[in-house]
Amino acid sequence: MKIRTFWVLASILSIIIVFTGCSSTPKITATNTLKITQNDKKIILNYLDTKTNDIAYPSKGKMYSAFELLETDKDKIYIWVVKEEYIKVGATLERGQGVSLPVVLKIKKSSKGISIISHNFPKDGVNFNKDVKKLFPANIRFPNNEEMVKLIEVTKTRAEEDLKNTLIK
């Protein structure tokens, strides 16, 4: 009886381990990883600030971007982007509209770094999930809520620095 109970418990435990392992989020595994330098990050940030009004544009203020690198490929960079609008009201800032979503940057790599050719992102609405599946490799892990809050803080810091620099002039 004790041996039979042991085998039943061992079998149940094995099943739990198998299903728990199968449902875990896969780690990012890029087969063709592109190394992103600090200069590349500046290029990406500048591109997001100046060339992505189709993602989000300001209504009254200025948009500030932040991103998290998700994965790279030989000619693509997968990122999570946060764009937030900040409106200057006297010597303070008010937060306006914002967006948080995954973006694919199509790039060209040279000895001088990267140049961004174009970008693509899932459209809002009913086709969002379908677009995500089409645009992004299945193994990409998107940021959690805490990581997105940190990206929003980066946009706020950038806006505050910009405001401080304009007040000094």
- Count every helix, treating DSSP H or I runs of 4 or more residues as helices: 4
Give the biggest sheet: 4 strands, antiparallel
Please compute the radius of gyration using only Cα atoms. 22 Å
Derived structural class: alpha+beta
Mean pLDDT: 83
Distance between the termini: 85 Å
Overall geometric form: globular
Kindly estimate the percentage of residues that lie in beta strands according to DSSP. 25-35%
| Low-confidence residue ranges | 1-30
Q: Care to count the β-strands?
A: 4
Order of helices and strands: HHEEEEHH
* Strand order in the sheet with the most strands: 1-2-3-4
Q: In percent, how helical is the residue content?
A: 40-55%
Descriptive tags:
169 residues; alpha+beta; four-stranded antiparallel β-sheet; 4 helices; 40% helix; globular; disordered N terminus
What does this protein structure show overall?
The chain has 169 residues and is α+β, with helices and mostly antiparallel strands. It has a four-stranded antiparallel beta sheet with strand order 1-2-3-4. The chain contains four helices and four strands. Strand 1 and strand 2 form a beta hairpin. The longest helix is centred in the last third of the chain and has 24 residues. The radius of gyration is 22 Å and the shape is globular.
